[in-house]
């Protein structure tokens, strides 16, 4: 057996995916809300029989364990292969899968690791790190925490890292690709990070992808230097996707089913030190879709503990709409007079504990914060608050939650709930009006729906073929009733043709034959049969099969009749209509 097959044999897909996405048993298969798009009803299916997964929702794609890991961690095939081979304990033949991308990325990660070791050594052991150690101390970060986050110090020198990495055998161009040095116009190189406290930025598994470097004496520099400097975009570091502390926090995030989002590295580090191990930093105030997608895989509850300045508050508001699309439950920690979480934690950790305990749901927080800005004793102030909150309220479809916040807003603004409701309906109507103007909306929906019925019927037929033991009956019946153009997809027709050539054998043998002889192009149809749920209970499968085949015939005939009506071919049309009546009549008596 080849390496791929060996890996698949050793790692069970249900067990593997379940570690990342909690799966529920559903008949022969397992189900979950799709981790790759936002949805409320589960359309992500995993088949233990075929060792495959499929999303029947917006993604409409699927595959094997390799494809899953590639999508989950944004990897190339080669990368996923190496990880799974390691997990399965399968040795890959050298050179059997050449993957330059992977080798290049691995090299950058190794270079970053050496750089981190270098910085870390200076911070912990070298006299050059004295100032940085004092600085950490002044910010309340203890040694254990500094070690846990692998903090370091980049010395005030133009080339000490460059020299160190050159000695390790890397070329300037390789170090440049990792973003650790800068190239001058005169083709000379110098260290990017100088005289800075260094924070390694990692992926979920702890691979160092880049760094964030912070100046320690902002006052003396007169604002000339940026407070934080990051690794530029490289083959491995992408700012939009990176969350500081995710490697350290992901286990607790999953266990507590909660993520606490803070702005800066120090906020996250101190939060961990004080026991809030579910904390990560978004580094700045922009929470991106990439961040949210990543978070959604770990938890559906976000607690914002952002800075209390204008930018932090604006960030919370902007994040809500994006996060609402992903169906997150959101809370806000109000730091009251404190500047940021690091500040509060360092000076009064007990206060922070209280603020955390008193965290408000996002809507309560919004109502409060808008109310503070207005004079609620005037009708204009009341109107301003209601108008600011309505767009958020309009997104709440749960009636219990809706009533709760409506009452809250009504009390705060001293305005009857009915009045607010009317304003809300006005708002929704205007929103809808805006949408209807985009022409052609309704018609595409209609044809989508029809396509779905035909596709569903065919999936059901495939499921009946591979999951029951009535293969012989089904293949015979399909042979009698359905012709090539009655099938929704050509590959299903071909699959049935192939299966029909084995009918001289037992049902079990039919599946075995299919398993052995199935050409790749028919694999998709075959897999669909395993992914589709069959009803459970005491079911007359033969009847179910007949019914489904006739329904397929009915839809096909209707389509043909529509075509014939355009062509004015009276005789053919009459024939088809007669056929349709017969099918419908049979269907009504089964
Ligand atoms: Zn999906």
TrEMBL record:
InterPro entries: DNA_primase_core_N_sf, DNA_primase_DnaB-bd, DNA_primase_DnaG, DNA_primase_Znf_CHC2, DnaG_bac, DNAG_N, DnaG_primase, TOPRIM_DnaG_bac. Residues 257-338 form the Toprim domain. Binds 1 zinc ion per monomer. The keyword Transcription applies. It comes from the Bacteria. GO terms for biological process: DNA replication, synthesis of primer. Pfam families: DnaB_bind, DNAG_N, Toprim_2, Zn_ribbon_DnaG. Gene3D superfamilies: 3.40.1360.10, DNA primase, catalytic core, N-terminal domain (3.90.980.10), Zinc finger, CHC2-type domain (3.90.580.10). One of its GO terms (cellular component) is cytoplasm. Its EC number is 2.7.7.101. A zinc finger (CHC2-type) spans 34-59. SUPFAM superfamilies: DNA primase core (SSF56731), Zinc beta-ribbon (SSF57783). Keywords: DNA replication, DNA-binding, DNA-directed RNA polymerase, Magnesium, Metal-binding, Nucleotidyltransferase, Primosome, Transcription, Transferase, Zinc, Zinc-finger. GO terms for molecular function: DNA binding; DNA-directed RNA polymerase activity; zinc ion binding. It catalyses: ssDNA + n NTP = ssDNA/pppN(pN)n-1 hybrid + (n-1) diphosphate. Its cofactor is Zn(2+). Belongs to the DnaG primase family. RNA polymerase that catalyzes the synthesis of short RNA molecules used as primers for DNA polymerase during DNA replication. NCBIfam families: dnaG. Monomer. Interacts with DnaB. This is DNA primase. The lineage of its organism: Bacteria, Candidatus Roizmaniibacteriota. The gene is dnaG.
């Amino acid at each position: 057996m080849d390496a791929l097959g060996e890996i698949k044999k050793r790692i069970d897909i249900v067990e593997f995916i379940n570690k990342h996405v909690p799966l529920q048993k559903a008949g022969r298969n397992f189900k979950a809300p799709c981790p790759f798009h936002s949805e409320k009803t589960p359309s992500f299916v995993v088949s233990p029989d075929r060792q495959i997964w499929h999303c029947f929702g917006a993604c409409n794609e699927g595959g094997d364990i390799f494809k899953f890991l590639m999508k989950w961690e944004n990897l190339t095939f080669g990368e996923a292969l190496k990880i799974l081979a390691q997990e399965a304990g399968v040795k890959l033949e050298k050179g059997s899968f050449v993957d330059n991308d992977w080798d290049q990325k691995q090299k950058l990660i190794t270079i970053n690791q050496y750089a981190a070791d270098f910085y870390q050594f200076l911070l912990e052991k070298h006299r050059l790190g004295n100032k940085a150690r004092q600085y950490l101390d002044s910010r309340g970060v203890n040694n254990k925490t500094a070690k846990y986050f692998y903090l370091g110090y980049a010395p005030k020198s133009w080339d000490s890292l460059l020299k160190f990495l050159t000695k390790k055998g890397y070329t300037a161009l390789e170090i440049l690709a990792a973003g650790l040095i800068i190239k001058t116009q005169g083709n000379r190189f110098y260290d990017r990070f100088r005289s800075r406290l260094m924070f390694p930025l990692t992926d979920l598994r702890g691979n160092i992808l880049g760094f964030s470097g912070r100046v320690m004496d902002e006052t003396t520099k007169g604002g000339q230097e940026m407070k934080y400097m990051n690794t530029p975009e490289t083959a491995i570091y992408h700012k939009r996707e990176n969350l500081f502390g995710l490697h350290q926090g992901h286990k607790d995030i999953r266990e507590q089913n909660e993520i606490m989002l803070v702005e800066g590295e120090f906020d996250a580090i101190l939060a961990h030190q004080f026991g809030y191990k579910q904390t990560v930093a978004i580094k700045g105030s922009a929470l991106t879709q990439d961040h949210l997608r990543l978070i959604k895989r770990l938890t559906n509850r976000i607690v914002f503990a952002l800075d209390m300045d204008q930018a932090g508050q604006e960030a919370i508001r902007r994040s809500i709409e994006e996060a609402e699309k992903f169906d997150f439950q959101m809370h806000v920690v109000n730091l009251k007079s404190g500047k940021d979480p690091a500040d509060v934690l360092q000076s009064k950790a007990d206060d922070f504990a209280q603020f955390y305990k008193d965290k408000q749901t996002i809507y309560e927080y919004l109502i409060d914060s808008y109310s503070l800005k207005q004079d609620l004793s005037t009708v204009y102030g009341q109107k301003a608050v209601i108008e600011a909150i309505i767009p958020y309220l309009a997104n709440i479809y749960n009636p219990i939650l809706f009533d709760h916040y409506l009452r809250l807003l009504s009390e705060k603004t001293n305005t009857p709930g009915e009045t607010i409701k009317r304003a809300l309906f006005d708002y929704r109507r205007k929103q809808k009006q805006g949408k209807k103007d985009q022409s052609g909306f309704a018609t595409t929906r209609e044809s989508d729906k029809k396509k779905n019925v035909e596709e569903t019927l065919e999936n059901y037929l495939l499921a009946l073929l591979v999951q029951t033991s009535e293969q012989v009956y089904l293949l015979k019946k399909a042979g009698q009733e359905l012709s090539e153009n009655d099938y929704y997809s050509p590959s299903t027709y071909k699959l049935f043709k192939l299966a029909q050539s084995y009918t001289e054998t037992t049902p079990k043998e039919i599946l075995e034959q299919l398993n052995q002889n199935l050409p790749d192009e028919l694999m998709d149809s075959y897999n669909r049969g395993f992914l589709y749920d069959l009803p459970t209970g005491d079911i007359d499968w033969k009847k179910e099969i007949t019914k489904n085949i006739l329904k397929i015939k009915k839809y096909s005939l209707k389509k043909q009749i529509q075509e014939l009506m355009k062509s004015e071919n009276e005789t053919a049309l009459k024939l088809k209509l007669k056929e349709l009546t017969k099918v419908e009549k049979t269907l009504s008596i089964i």
